[in-house]
Automatic annotation (TrEMBL):
One Pfam family from the record: Response_reg
Keyword vocabulary terms for this entry: Phosphoprotein
Organism: Pseudaeromonas paramecii
Taxonomy, superkingdom: Bacteria
Listed transmembrane segments: none
PANTHER family xref list: RESPONSE REGULATORY DOMAIN-CONTAINING PROTEIN, STRESS RESPONSE REGULATOR PROTEIN 1
Annotated signal peptide: none
Record PROSITE patterns: RESPONSE_REGULATORY (PS50110)
Residue numbers bearing the 4-aspartylphosphate modification: D61
Response regulatory domain residues: 5-129
Name of this chain's protein: Response regulator
Length: 157
């Protein structure tokens, strides 16, 4: 079983650490990577693509120095290499307009306001990686211990 990647992007180290801690139950099945900027994430995405790896999920903060999370996720949505990658925006400072842009331009799959509920972040992440595994027609059995059972049931029946 090739491990799939989940990338978390936030310029604040304590927020990044909290997200990684919340996603720790997924570590047995997915490789968790952290980036502190959109630029660092883009470099990692290129590196992973060159290695033939698949990125199941990117969780990004919105307000970051340089490029915003919405800009990063919009670029990801437009990149054919990552068209199936699931996208989550995590923010405490987005305006209504930012949120609309995230949904329309970046085609985000979920939106969280800070502070987020750790259990909800984990549950939504499980659902999204389940959708990714099924959309990619990967063998889901090696991931069965962590995938969202309701999503599996709905998609397979």
């Amino acid at each position: 079983m090739d491990k799939l990647y989940i990338i978390c992007v936030d310029d604040q180290r304590e927020v990044l650490s909290a997200v990684m801690k919340d996603l720790q139950p997924l570590e047995q099945y997915f490789l968790l990577e952290e980036c502190e900027s959109a630029e660092e994430c883009e470099a990692l995405l290129d590196e992973l693509d060159s290695a033939g790896a698949q990125v199941a999920l990117v969780i990004s903060d919105h307000i970051m120095p340089g490029r915003s999370g919405v800009e990063l996720l919009a670029q990801l949505a437009a990149d054919r290499r990552f068209s199936e990658t699931k996208k989550v925006l995590l923010t405490g400072q987005a305006t209504h307009r930012d949120t609309i842009e995230a949904v329309n331009a970046a085609r985000i799959d979920h939106y969280f306001e800070k502070p987020w509920d750790p259990d909800e972040l984990l549950q939504i992440s499980r659902r999204l990686v389940t959708e990714f595994v099924l959309a990619q027609r990967l063998d889901y059995e090696p991931y069965a211990g962590v995938l969202d059972q309701a999503t599996l049931y709905r998609e397979l029946h």
